[in-house]
């Protein structure tokens, strides 16, 4: 079973987590209420997933996030509020997502999100991009959500990866001629793989209706325009994954 750490200061909320998690059979979990308790457990156990409250009595400024990242765990945040200062402070942190605390059902949503992360391990994505830095950025964000991620630096590598890994369900293309020619790549792939087998998400450098409409006509399923937030990126990925799975 997957190892899960829940760090939550409220005894009431911890009780609800326990009630819901006890009904699940996929998580071996620990429930603690403080930074120090979490720190002690992290020295003993390797956790695959974590759900944490950002503001704890002994760590009021989100220190729990840095602690988990130190132990190679990217948490789900279950928190009362998210504001611009939060985003500024944790821009470089490894965080899977956040869910706002409001009502009982939101704890159920947290557990559903954890189940989604487990399910993502069975989903293979291909990132086609010739820039090592930007390609690594995309891959890192996808790995945070437990996807299996493959990479290709040009069209030929993309064809090879698709042949070797027929289980790929989503291809993300960042056009960067002459190494990656999105139009050529999409047109050739659609001769062999239909949309119900493989979804294609195109990353556009700018808003250009002629370019995006041409690529959609060639067989792309969706596009996203730079710059975009991580939240928007994940939204597009999940929308397209659901259409295949």
Structural class: alpha/beta
Highest CATH level, the class of the largest domain: Alpha Beta
End-to-end Cα distance, whole Å, is 23 Å
Task: Output the CATH topology of the largest domain.
Answer: Rossmann fold
Taking all Cα atoms into account, the compactness measure Rg is 20 Å
Q: Could you tell me the strand content as a percent range?
A: 15-25%
Shape, principal axes of CA atoms: elongated
- What is the arithmetic mean of pLDDT? 91
Give the helices and strands, then pairings.
Layout: E1 2-7, H1 11-21, E2 27-32, H2 35-44, E3 49-52, H3 63-70, E4 76-79, H4 84-89, E5 97-100, H5 104-120, E6 124-128, H6 132-144, E7 148-152, H7 155-164, E8 168-174, H8 182-189, E9 199-204, H9 209-218, E10 222-225, H10 230-244
Parallel strand pairs: 1-2, 1-3, 3-4, 4-5, 6-7, 6-8, 8-9, 9-10
Model description:
The structure is a single chain. With 245 residues, the chain is α/β, with parallel strands linked by helices. The chain folds into 2 domains: 2-119, Rossmann fold (3-Layer(aba) Sandwich); 121-244, Rossmann fold, CATH 3.40.50.2300. The protein contains 10 helices and 10 strands. Strand 8, helix 8 and strand 9 form a beta-alpha-beta unit. Helix 2 runs parallel beside helix 3 (63-70).
């Amino acid at each position: 079973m997957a190892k899960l750490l829940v760090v939550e200061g409220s005894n009431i909320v911890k009780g609800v987590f326990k009630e819901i998690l006890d009904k699940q059979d996929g998580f071996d979990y620990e429930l603690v209420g403080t930074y120090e308790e979490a720190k002690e457990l992290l020295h003993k156990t390797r956790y695959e997933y974590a759900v944490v409250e950002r503001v704890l009595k002994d760590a009021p400024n989100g220190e729990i996030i840095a602690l988990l990242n130190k132990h190679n765990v990217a948490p789900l945040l279950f928190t009362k509020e998210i504001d611009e200062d939060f985003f500024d402070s944790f821009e470089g942190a490894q965080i899977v997502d956040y869910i706002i605390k409001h009502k009982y059902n939101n704890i159920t949503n947290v557990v559903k999100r954890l189940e989604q992360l487990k399910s993502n391990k069975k989903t293979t994505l291909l990132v086609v991009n010739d820039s090592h830095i930007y390609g690594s950025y995309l891959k890192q964000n996808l790995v945070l959500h437990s996807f299996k991620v493959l990479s290709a630096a040009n069209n030929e590598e993309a064809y090879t990866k698709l042949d070797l890994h027929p289980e790929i369900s989503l291809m993300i293309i960042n056009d960067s001629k002459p190494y990656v020619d999105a139009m050529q790549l999409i047109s050739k792939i659609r001769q062999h793989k239909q949309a119900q087998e493989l979804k294609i998400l195109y990353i556009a450098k700018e808003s250009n209706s002629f370019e995006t409409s041409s690529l959609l006509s060639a067989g792309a399923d969706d596009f996203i325009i730079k710059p975009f937030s991580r939240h928007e990126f994940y939204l597009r990925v999940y929308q397209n994954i659901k259409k295949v799975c």
